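Methods — Computational structure assignment.
A single polypeptide chain was analysed. Its primary sequence is given first, followed by the predicted tertiary structure written as structure tokens.
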Amino acid sequence: MNAARRVLCAVITAALAASCNREAPEEVESDTVVPVMTQPASTGSIRAVIHATGLVTPAPGAELVVIAPEAGRISEIPKAEGDRVRRGDLLVRFDIPSATAEAARQGAEVARAQANLESARAAQLRAHELFDKGVAARRDMEDADRAIADAEAALAQAQASRAAANSLADRALVRATFDGIVARRQHNPGDLVEATATDPVMRVIDPRRLEVTASVAISDVPRVMVGANARLGGAGAPEVSMKVASLPAAVEPGTATVPVRLTLPATAMLPVGTPLQIDIDAEEHANVVLVPLDALVREGEATAVFVAEGDKAARRPVVVGLANAEQVELRSGVKAGEQVIIAGQAGLPDGATISVEAPEGASAGPADK
């Protein structure tokens, strides 16, 4: 048994000695080539774009909200939601007994004042005739003249009161002030309504005169200019050209935005209340270095691009300026004409070996040479 153990130990010792004398395998360094795509930095102009949300709203004068002149009952409302109306069409007839009664009373007052004036004129004529004959005193004639003046003043006052009463009574009859469409009807004949904005009866709009009210961030307000071009934003949005119609004036309560009015062409045919994404043109920078937006690499708060220098990728810290959906302005770090990497730079180390694959239809950059 001891002899066997001695033999086994001798075998193991010999194996270990052989393995220690064997040379270690040679370490081989490999340099991976990363395929990338490049595009030359260019010089050009770029315009900033302000992104905002908005709603389609009626333009000034293109909306009529019918409210009762005073508390009363609706006696007639012939138009329904979606109906088209012409200027002068009846929209709502209110039954307001007090206004009707007051108009009738003031009409009676006018008739009474007219009768008093006619009587005063007859008295004046008699007084003048008697004075001319020497029968009446001058004072009687002067009193008759003053009575005429008083009767004329009373008639004028009665006529003014009748006009005011008729005006109030006319408010019981509401007609369309423009051609449009009934956007909302909130009551029916027989309903009792209040004379408040919280109890509207009907809303009529002119669909040919609409605009967009955009909510612009307070920080972007100084960049908004009257007459600036705007358009619908978002993928697949129809082409609708707009312009800034007014400068912002007040902050919307409870928000950090300011409403900005934009003109909307009559051909847009967008329903009132439609939510929209809006792009508004802002300031423009000319003769600046531009690269595709895809070239940017962001690492925390740092921004860089990779430039193809021969067959190596060089990381360049950059200072970014204006940007749009496709390009970005570089204020430093890259010169016009340099080949910036626009694909394949994700996770690319500085100084990595690259091979440039030119986009289809484009020529290869300097790194191919």
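Note: The chain has four domains: 34-46+286-368, 51-60+208-284, 75-94+172-205, 97-171.
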